[in-house]
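thread: overnight batch results

M.L. [08:02]
morning all. the overnight job finished for the chain we discussed friday. pasting input first so we're all looking at the same thing
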Amino acid sequence: MTTIHIIRQNMEMPDSKALEGARKLLFGVIDGHTDQDRRAWRRWWKMIFRSQIGELFVMEYKFTRSSKFHRWSMKIEGAFFDAQERFSDREQFRNWVKIGAGWVDWVPGPDGGIVPLPRSISYAAADDQEFREYHEKMVSFFRSGRASAYLWPHLTEQQATDMVETILQEFEDDDSQNFR
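M.L. [08:03]
and the structure it wrote out:
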């Protein structure tokens, strides 16, 4: 779920005539699906319209996950898994990628230190915006010297970089990525 923080800026609210177009958009073109949704939608905007300068709002929203983008990202992960020499278990590989990409929660470890616990990328745990953030971190991690040196220890730094770029190039040329 994505959290959005909204703050009322130091500007006067437009007069009611100027707001008419916004009202048509917010309560006509876009509206709640059920009666309950419509009431909640109107309460939300009533609070916004009546807010004072500096007032903070927090909105949690779940962006519908793009199945096509998810499959494309998983193909990239799979291509790296298939090309690497360190892991025989795909789930362990994914956990390693999540940790390397910083897709973790930091929790107390058994000895009192702080340890990374990989976060879930399931549809229920990560909406589309969060999953896209994970994807970008994953690709950045694959491009890092840390990842390539570990995945292909026998290659020179340049060869490992070339390996990463060769794998990624296949997906950058892929026409199916037009969903980004």
